[in-house]
Amino acid sequence: MKSFIKKNCALPDIVLKVVLFTSLLFFIFPFYKNLAQSADPNPLPSADTIENTESNQDRYRYNPAGKRDPFYSKLWKEDSAIELPKRAAIGLQKYEITEINLVGIVWGALGRKGVVETPEGKSYMINVGTPVGKHGGIVKEITEKEVVIQEFATDYLGNRVEKISLLKIKYEEKDEKNT
């Protein structure tokens, strides 16, 4: 047996392992014993405890009078309304809807697109969702013969009113004398 211990493992290694194991047990066991003793077998609060917490909640009420709103920005002032700069008009947003002419409608596998022309002679392809006009108009629908544009305006009472404009293809009639 002595030859087995000498050949396969060193005696200091075994002693070191035994000492470490016993020291771990020595330090861990007292904590485990305290945890087991302090554990409450009935973890639910009693009715008295619940009544006491409810009465404590009724004692304090928050009064916001004279205090600033924590969700209101100090940078924003109600008295001086800040006007945000308007975006620069691009393309068809420079013109009134009445100034734009519908030249044609193209449709295929990808849907319908309208071809419009500005008073300056520039042509644009539009589809549903394209912004059109000076008053924030948007293309809502493109049919075989017309384009439906939706705009919102404010009437004299301050109500927001929807305005629907139609762009129709204007056909030029041929003069039979010249043909």
Provide tags for this entry.
179 residues, alpha+beta, SH3 type barrels, 3 helices, 7 strands, elongated
Tell me what the structure shows.
This protein is of the alpha+beta class and 179 residues long. It has a domain at 91-168: Roll (SH3 type barrels), CATH 2.30.30. The protein contains 3 helices and 7 strands. Strands 4-5-6-7 form a 4-stranded antiparallel β-sheet, with no helix packed on it. The radius of gyration is 42 Å and the shape is elongated.
CATH architecture assignment of the domain at 91-168: Roll
Helix/strand order: HHHEEEEEEE
CATH class of the domain at 91-168: Mainly Beta
**Mean of the pLDDT scores?**
75
Physical arrangement of strands within the biggest beta sheet? 4-5-6-7
Strand and helix map with partners:
Elements: H1 2-8, H2 11-38, H3 47-59, E1 101-108, E2 111-117, E3 123-126, E4 131-132, E5 137-142, E6 146-154, E7 160-168
Antiparallel strand pairs: 1-2, 2-3, 4-5, 5-6, 6-7
Short description:
This protein is α+β, with helices and mostly antiparallel strands and 179 residues long. Helix content is 27%, strand content 25%.
